[in-house]
Amino acid sequence: MELMYQVEDKPPLPISVLLAAQHLLAALGAIIAVPLVVGGVLGLPTQDMVILVNAAMLVSGVVTILQCKGAGPVGIRLPCVMGTSFTFVGVSIAIGFEHGVAGILGSALVASLVMIVGSFFMPFIRKLFPPVVTGTVVTLIGLSLIPVAVDWLAGGQVGSEGYAKPANLMIGLLVLALVIALSQWGRGILAAAAVVIGIVVGFVVCIAFGLVDFSPVKEASAVALPSPLHFGLSFPISGIIGMSVAYLVTIMESTGDFMALSDATHRKLTGKKLSSGILCDGLGSALASVFSTTPFSSFSQNVGIVAISGVASRHVVAITGGMLILAGLFPVLGALVVAIPLPVLGGAGLVMFAMIISAGISMLSRIEFNRRNMLIIAVSIGSGMAVTVRPELLSYLPEFAKVALASGITTGSLVALLLSGILPGREAVVLEDETEA
């Protein structure tokens, strides 16, 4: 797909703000969901929940800017949104029940060294990803996100009240149709901002029919100041081990996200760039612990926005980081975004996430479809989707294995790497020039 704005382009400020809003709308709900889930399960008081959520938005903004703009060896310098990661939910809850929030944050802080140290080995790890593995992983990322978009479009989780009622489906399909129409037939900013326009129109329709709950906006405080070390830090050995496993999983998932982003932005992903991105991820997670929230990773869903909008400018997504900081300092702004009904986000999310699948298929189209490569693709995607749609498969595994394999992306990636390494006829991989900007 031809890009409207390249990675180094700087669109006019009003246009940049509009384009940045697309990424904010796609990411904010997921960013605050992790601290809400962890805090809710642990039964934290409202004041502590607010601190977790505000810190998540604030630090997400800071790390997003660092990832996009870069500082020395830190930051991949691509349009990458960073936020709290669901990979850490299960282990955080387990640690929290025994050691409290201080145990979660202390364990995450120490274990972030796994990602920080691991970042220096990414040039070697990058060599393990020939095109057949890369394309398979990117396809899996998109496939794993589709159930999320479907649940959004239907109005919540399967079994929840009103799931898939006609009104939800009609609103979601309206947004979906609008995004498709603007992307296909729109020109200039209309095509580039298709996602945010679709979401705004869907939001307005929901307001007109009285389907928007504005209570989060009314309850949100006007200003929230950061609260570093609010919960304190403790360092249980069991918690550090659990978090270390989760960080290893995150390295795999972030590597897949960065590969998908590389393809969407038409930029080569060298081992050096990959190291910079993973290092930023690890340092961002350490910063999150200090500022009283859960660990971070890159956001797959925002890769879909780059793909469908043709806007690859890292400077645009850096503005998204600024918006996240504002949402953390002024929670009422974030609450307004959270008030957007799920079917509205689902309509846009379905096409965004499906675009990641398209990117993966495009990458796979460049390889030779011989028996070996077809086996790698088939078994890897089958394994990843098995875990995604039937997570109960892992019920009797040890806890560390559940954490490691809970993500279909990770499971499928590990299978792809294993098969690529042991099946005869392994592809020669030429690592791109490490000095390329």
Automatic annotation (TrEMBL):
Subcellular location(s) of the protein: Cell membrane
UniProt keyword annotations, A-Z: Cell membrane, Membrane, Transmembrane, Transmembrane helix, Transport
Keyword Cell cycle appears in the UniProt entry: no
Gene Ontology cellular component list: plasma membrane
Annotated membrane topology: Multi-pass membrane protein
Claim: Transport is one of the keywords in the record: yes
Pfam family, one: Xan_ur_permease
Membrane-spanning segments: 12-37, 49-66, 78-97, 103-125, 132-154, 166-182, 189-211, 231-249, 316-338, 344-362
UniProt GO molecular function: xanthine transmembrane transporter activity
Similarity section: Belongs to the nucleobase:cation symporter-2 (NCS2) (TC 2.A.40) family.
PANTHER family: PURINE PERMEASE C1399.01C-RELATED, URIC ACID TRANSPORTER UACT
Protein name: Nucleobase:cation symporter-2, NCS2 family
Species this chain originates from: Vreelandella subglaciescola
Origin organism lineage: Bacteria, Pseudomonadati, Pseudomonadota, Gammaproteobacteria, Oceanospirillales
